[in-house]
Structures are given as C-alpha cells and as structure tokens.
Specification:
Number of helices: 16
Number of domains: 2
Oligomer: single chain
CATH architecture of the largest domain: Orthogonal Bundle
Number of strands: 6
Strand order of the largest sheet: 3-2-1-6-5-4
Radius of gyration: 23 Å
Shape: elongated
Helix content: 40-55%
CATH class of the largest domain: Mainly Alpha
Structural class: alpha+beta
CATH superfamily of the largest domain: Hypothetical protein af1432
Distance between the termini: 57 Å
Largest sheet: 6 strands, antiparallel
Strand content: 5-15%
C-alpha cells in the first residue's frame, strides 16, 4: 500500500534519527541536519545557528539556487557572524521565545511584530527569500541550543510556495531528533577540546581555533580529492566525519614532550628536534587498539602527518612503542615513507597543518603575507606535499580562506 505524503515524511524523519546518530563530529552533523531538513521539506535554502551565550553563532548556510550558479565542484563561501538573541531578528526571536515561526512572505511581515527582515541581504546575493520556517533546537530540558531555518519550499513542479501549518509538527519532531544528536556530538567535541586544551598547556600553538581550522581544511581537501577519485558519496561522508575528529588530534602526542622544547621561543637544537619527532608515534600509541574506524584514521594521522612526499620526513617505518626502525635506510635510520606510501589522511593533514601554521601568528613568527604562503605551498609541491593535493588546495583556496574567518583566534 502506497504511503501518503505525511506518512512518507514521518517515516523519513524516524529513519534519519538512526542515521544521524552515526555522525560523530559536530560540524559535519550540523551540515547534515540542515541538508536533511531542506530535503524533507523540499526547501531551496536554509541556515543553522548554535547558541553562544547571548548570541546565535551562524554555522552553515545552504542555497541550491546560488550553488547552481557556481562552477562544478565549487562551494558557496560562508562567513561567520553573530546574531543577538532578542526579538528584533527572526532567528533571535525564535531563540528568545522558543516558538516556531512560519512566515509565508518575508517581504510582507506586518508592523505589529517585533522582528523584521533585512532585504539588503537578498539584494547583495541576488536572491529572493519568500517563505521561511524557523524552529528552535531544544534539549529535553527545554534549553535552546540553536536555531534551524529552512527557506523557500517548492511544490512538485519546482515553484516556490509557502510552508503550510501541517508542516509545523513535522519540523518540530525533526528538530527534537536533531537536538538530541547535536547534544551528543557537542559532548564529543567538548571531550576532544579538553584533550587539546591539555596539549595547549604544554604547547601554546595547539589552540582550539588552530585544530578546528586544520580539521576543516583537511575535510575540504579530502572531500575534493575523494570526489575526483570517484569514491562513493556515503563513504566520503563517513570518512569526512572521522577525519575531522582525527585531524583535531594530530599533535596530541606533544603532551609527552618536554616544556623546555615545546615552549622554546627560538630554534631548537638538532637533539631537541629528534625528541620533538617522537610526538608522532607517541600520539599514534593512543589509537593503536584499532577498535574502530576512528582509531585507524587517528592512528594514521598522528603517525604520518610529518612524512614528506619526497621521502624526507619522519618518523618513517618504526615500532611505535620502542622508536626502533622496522625498515632501515642506507644510513641505518628508519626508512621514511614517501609518495603513496603515506596514507591519504596523513598527506591531507600535513598540507592543512602547514597552511594554518604559515597563515597564523606564532611566538616565533609573524603572520605570513597570503601571497608568500601560497608561493611556499606551491614550492613544496612534490617535495613536502602530494602534488595532486596541492592542485586541489589551490582550486579551493577561496573556500579555505572563508574557513579561516570561521575559526578566529580567541
């Protein structure tokens, strides 16, 4: 017996509850929640925010109409901004009151309501926002953790129409499921950031902003690489989720390195450099149990993110518990990995890490000029970095620069 539209929608929402529970990383999950909400309610566009004190922090925007205007493989740029939680804006009103807002026409909002719509944004991007459905993301304790807004629902013929009152219970049910899985992902993120904060106490370079940028760069580069390799979409999505968390922990092994080396303001000695190299296989030890896909990828990232494409990196083929060579080069030292011997996750994080290091201020260096950063990345193609990944890096540089703005230093 064929399901009605309402039964199909409910079935999809229930099914998604199980699927979304498999997504571990907070940012990947936010992006997925927004996409699925748009898909279920046939919405052309949407935005998702998370609460940050008295503000809503803009996290992701999607717009199918604007996306179609871009060349294949390109993504819409996004900028981070905050919205005050008050009744003056639509998203702020929903966060403040906990109410759902179903607005049929954004250009015909009555003067009697406290919120308004800034039409200048539409003019700036050459888009017309007509119908919106905005819903709070609430915990089971009724705490607002974010706001989900979907925009311009379409009928079966692709024509923009309005959200009907019958849509509202379904979007509320969806938002309840989304809120539960987002809470769990936030807990996972908090645990990761606490681990990183321990590393930050030892090494001031390992900030939450730094690891978030490196992880976001790595995911973007990997996704484009995987698409070129025609890796199935479901596999790409699973790997993006795991890679983002693993990349955040790429330098976790530094917790075992002496402060005298980590916090040294000037160049370290050759002997100190040899000690510093140990952070790769010390970090890998944490994930050696291989009980999950996360363990496998986090192990590869920690161990190989300092291997170089031309074979000049470290630590090479070693026993991670003794530091002794498993395979030796002509000088008797551990043979470094080179080329495709380096796992793709290690190659991607290597490029992402260096890009962020060059683009950021450190105690021992100033921020490099962007042209100098790009010139250095290009010069290291085929030496430190996989040339194919460098090409992908340059294809996606505008999007990577937007990521940089999304995770500023505190």
């Amino acid at each position: 017996m064929k399901m009605t539209k309402e039964e199909h929608r409910l079935h999809e929402i229930i099914r998604l509850g199980s699927e979304l529970n498999d997504v571990q990383d907070l940012d990947i999950l936010l992006e997925r929640v927004l996409f699925e909400a748009r898909r279920i309610f046939n919405a052309d566009a949407g935005t998702i925010y998370t609460c940050d004190g008295d503000n809503l922090l803009f996290k992701y925007a999607q717009n199918e109409t604007l996306q179609k205007r871009l060349p294949p493989g390109h993504k819409l740029p996004f900028k981070s901004f905050r919205v005050k939680i008050d009744k003056k804006s639509i998203s702020g009103y929903v966060a403040e009151t906990g109410e759902i807002l179903n607005i049929p026409n954004m250009y015909n909002i009555p003067d009697s309501v406290p919120y308004n719509f800034d039409q200048s944004v539409d003019k700036k991007i050459d888009y017309k926002t007509i119908s919106t459905l905005t819903v709070p993301l609430k915990t089971n304790r009724k705490e607002i953790i974010g706001v989900l807004q979907i925009i311009n629902t379409r009928d079966d013929y692709g024509k923009i129409t309005t959200f009907v009152p019958e849509d509202e219970p379904y979007i509320l049910h969806f938002s309840n499921i989304a809120s539960m899985v987002l809470q769990r992902a936030q807990l996972t993120r908090d645990i990761l950031l606490r681990m990183i904060s321990i590393a930050e106490l030892r090494d001031p370079k390992e900030t939450g902003s730094h690891v978030n940028r490196v992880a976001a760069y790595a995911v973007e580069i990997y996704e484009r690489w995987a698409a070129k390799k025609r890796i199935p979409r479901d596999e790409i999505d699973k790997n993006r989720d795991i890679l983002r968390m693993a990349a955040m922990l790429h330098d976790v092994g530094k917790v075992a390195i002496s402060d005298l080396i980590l916090k040294k303001p000037k160049n370290i000695t050759p002997n100190e450099y040899e000690v510093m190299k140990k952070h790769t296989y010390i970090g890998a030890r944490l994930f050696n149990s291989s009980k999950s896909d996360f363990d496998d990828i986090a192990y590869q990232v920690a161990l190989t993110h300092h291997e170089n494409w031309d074979g000049s990196g470290y630590p090479g083929y070693i026993d991670i518990f003794t530091g002794e060579a498993i395979e030796k080069d002509s000088s008797g030292k551990p043979r470094p990995r080179k080329g495709d011997e380096i796992p793709i996750y290690g190659r991607v994080v290597s490029l992402a890490d260096v890009f962020d290091a060059l683009s950021s201020k450190r105690v021992y260096k100033k921020v490099w000029d962007e042209n100098d950063v790009l010139k250095e990345i290009k010069n290291l193609s085929g030496k430190k970095f996989d040339p194919e990944l460098v090409d992908i890096f340059f294809e996606s540089i505008s999007f990577l620069n937007n990521i940089k703005l999304h995770y500023p230093e505190n």
